[in-house]
Amino acid sequence: MQKHNLLPEEEKKLAQDCRKFMTASLQYACKNFPLKDPLLKHAEFLNFHERANQTFDSVQFFISKFPTLEAAMEGKMDALYDEFCAYQALGNDSQLSDLSRIDHIWMYLGKMEGKNGLRFGLLAQVAQYVLVLPHSNAAEERIFSTVEKNKTKYRGSLSNTTTLPSILTCKTNYFNHTHCYKFKPTKSVLQKAKKAATTYNADHSSTSK
To answer: What residue stretches are annotated with the HAT C-terminal dimerisation domain (predicted)?
Structure first.
């Protein structure tokens, strides 16, 4: 430890208390975190660097969870198994080594060409389903917060089917990385906006009458 004015007994007690705190924190994490969740366990097949330690059961686990994916893989399980074996036997690629994000790795794998087309086309399709699983509800909470900020008691007439979704679309997709005063819509967007505004005004005027 660094130099201090503590007595040896006080220093020893401080070290013991710190150790107890770290132990309690770890016990809390092990108790409350989903460390044994089968979904997280099977999702490990996505880890390119641990691919040799995974089994095809993990791929089958997710296929059984998505009806649309299960239907898409009907009659293709043998080909999918072959792709998984090829994935496990795949050597270290210099370009893959430069990729740190797992979605970028699977994007790269999904575009790799083989003798008869995409080398990991089916396996990459399964991976895409797994990668879009939300890790938390933080994104949904942000949307709810945005709704509450826009649809207030002073603006209670915002339509849930037209106006409010349009505002959410703009805020979510366009202004995340661009300030509103720097956003320059394309001519196509302006034409569509003008057409939508004309339609909205026409419907609104006819309703008011």
So the answer is: 115-162
